[in-house]
Amino acid sequence: MAFKKLAIGNDHVAVEMKNEIMAYLQEQGYEVINVGTDSTERFNYPVSGYKVAKMVASGEVDGGILICGTGVGISLSANKVHGIRCVTCSEPYSARLSRQHNNTNCVAFGARVVGIETAKDIVDAWLGAEYEGGRHQVRIDMLTEIETTQALAAAQE
Ligand code: RB5
User: Fold this and answer.
1) Which of 43, 45, 66 to mutate to test the pocket of ligand 1 (most atoms within 8 A of CB)?
2) How many domains, the chain?
3) CA distances from 98 to 43, 113, 125 (A)
4) What is the CATH number of the domain that holds 30?
């Protein structure tokens, strides 16, 4: 199990799905820290996206799970934090490949887009896959270069 300790975040649209995914993961032995809202009152997704991302980037947790209506806003929020590679997906294939090739450290999906069984499949695929390194590391290093310098030497060639 590459990821043992996880943070989970959500907005008001995704409270029920967050609770179901959290219980599903806890049953499997994962430690899950909930930093999302537990209320269906309107809640701005960047707050949860940011909180989860900071915990992942600092190493406090191994990975992050983010759920809003589409998964888009909350993943954009997380991806603004240095060191975060968050995939938004609505099927398990992209979730698995995002671990193997892109070394994602957060996964996002939409409570208005996928049903709970697909959400579980996404989480299973994402948590079950390992980063392959090798040729993929060159590209991850380029992502970090863009993030830290707002430039990319290879694009000048
Ligand atoms: C909330 O209405 C909605 O905008 C949010 O859950 C999410 O889908 C944003 O990306």
Assistant:
1) 45
2) 1
3) 28, 19, 10
4) 3.40.1400.10
